[in-house]
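Figure S4 source data
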Amino acid sequence: MSAPSTSRCNLLEVRDLSHHYRQPRRWPALPWPGRSPAQQTGQGPVLEHISFSLPPGHSLGIVGESGAGKSTLARIVMALERPSRGSVRLLGRDLHQMSPEQLRLARADFQMVFQDPYSSLNPRQRIERIVTEPLRALGEREPLPMRRRAEQMLEQVGLHSRDLDKYPHEFSGGQRQRIAIARALMTRPRLIVADEPVSALDVSIQAQVLDLLLELKKTYGISFLLISHDMAAIHHLCEDMLVMHQGRIIERGSPAQLFHSPQQPYTQALIAAMPQLGQGRRRERLAQQPQQQQLQQPSAAAQPAAPGKDDGREGH
């Protein structure tokens, strides 16, 4: 998979992103298969030389086991955490070089859907206040226009306008995640970062939420950065996919390419761990796959782009 040339207007560009833990933990490091040295000791790199681009209207999936650095990457893309080096550009502007006021206004263009629909909604607030929060953060103060837009967004995600007067505990997990998606849509964002948006849901509900995201992508032209450990979820929504392992991108391509001809043993193990018809999901950690199989040197297409250059993709 190659990246679009920088002559095209990319919505999101991540260049040579690295992040290091700097503070040692207060407890001794314990061996934990699959965890990087940084995660076991609290020191060292958690992301190394991450580069990719995302054109408008396209979706990119980032897959890897827990501990691969995916959620840290999502927080940095959302400007919730600063990287040790590298840049994150949205519509050509470096998010980490903005003033707090510039960043507050820029957040209209990018929103996040979190993993846990139970903890991401304030249980003491009515749904109307939860869903309209992004508009209030942008300075909107007129209650009637905000409520009308909230009603529109709730109906767009398959709920009812009357649900605005309820509290989170009155909804199922799948409905709560729909509320979180409605909240993210309130500012008409260009990009939604979704960090494991279906992993906390029942299997029967996961497909419904993924179908909703796909419908919103087609309707509004929204780009998604989908963080997941589930390759099937990424295959459902995304045109392109990156495989992360211990803070590095080790392979990239379209979901079809990586499903049918994965090059790295780690990617092969991820695919093998997917549930098959009539079988349960394999429970052993992928890190315990023959470690004896060393990761191959990534091909040119899998190498991170050098700073200031595109990472070789065309037509995301």
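Figure S5 source data
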Amino acid sequence: MSITVELAGTDLASLLPADATGVVSSATLDVEVAQNDQAAQAQWTDFASPVTSLTADEDVRLVHSGQVPSVTVGAAGDVTFTAGKLTLELSAAVDGQGTEADPVVLQCERGAEESGRLGAIPVVGEEASGAPQTTKPGEPGDGSGEKNNAITVTPQDEPAEGPANPCPVDPPVGEMDTSDAPKPAPGAALVVRDLPGVYPGCAYAVGMANVRKLNGAMIINDPTKKPALISVYANKRSSTRRATQEGGSFTQLDSIGNLKLPDAESTFLTFGFQPVSAKVEFENGPLTISTGTAIPHPPVRENFAVASFMQSLRLYDVKVNGVALDVGSDCRTASPFKVVLRGDFTKDPKYLNVLQGGLMSGVVTIPAFSGCGTGGEDLDSLFTASISGPGNAIIMNQGTTCIPVEPSTICPATMPVIPGTES
């Protein structure tokens, strides 16, 4: 369900701080649910709109998405839904990031000449009395299992086959790890909130990973083959502090993703002369993306973007000079290692937020290998000597994030170019 509001850019500019470049909005709609001569009041809450850019001389379209309460009726007859008061909470955003300024509250009443009718649902069954009852999404009934006057909902026609799901990936699971995000300047405590109205989305991320000892690189999530989508909950949590508080303004938005990458394949010259090809399987933990802005004392302004996750590597289908080398099924890094990537705000595309994407890079240390070899042959030292060690650079480019229920996002997700291959 979505609630769309259009406001004049000049009106919004007069309500928000002068430095606001965007607006974040939440909406609550009062709804009358009526059937026959009975009526009940419902409230549709927690409808959220993502950051929307402000343009002073153009209207701004705010698209709020959320879930509506379920409705239970005890009689036959049309159930009608009529819109009442709409309440908006508007908060300023700067460079794609929300701020901690107090929201501006707007209330809109329906005009006398407007019906406000949202729709009607026909219900057929035996006659019974009772006003409609509204419950919150997911709220259980009484569980009695008794027959409720044989009320049924009129079946709908089978929907026409629509477009394919733009995000055919499972939502991310796991806990966020924000330990690698920048720490705010000392001062007042941050206000930490789990943000409402967060829905799963997806994005493509492609890149290059160097192996320093082999003086070579391999493509990550090759867009010319079968690239995988990252599943993501964008802007799941915020940590903020106001500019007027001790330590200055600080805003951080945290997102969680599920980074299931396809296997990569590459050929290197081991020790500088022996061609070795191998396939690499990436075993990744939950991906945490933190973006934000720190303004400890104006005009000092520091944007940041950090992505981190734990990773293990497994090698298979190894060939030396074209001849297969049996490394077994468990030739992998002896322990997981942490990958930390950071946005570079001196290069385009800058990683301002998880919805827009952009460039991130970092350097990792690859651990020693274990489990390599079969039939009593131990090849651990061979791969450790030729691959393991510090100084292995990674650069990734993330495209825009598609959130299917958010009309303001770009769907399907856009495919970015591999860094360094731009024409």
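Residues 49 and 64 are 4 Å apart (CA to CA). Confidence is low (pLDDT under 50) at residues 136-162.
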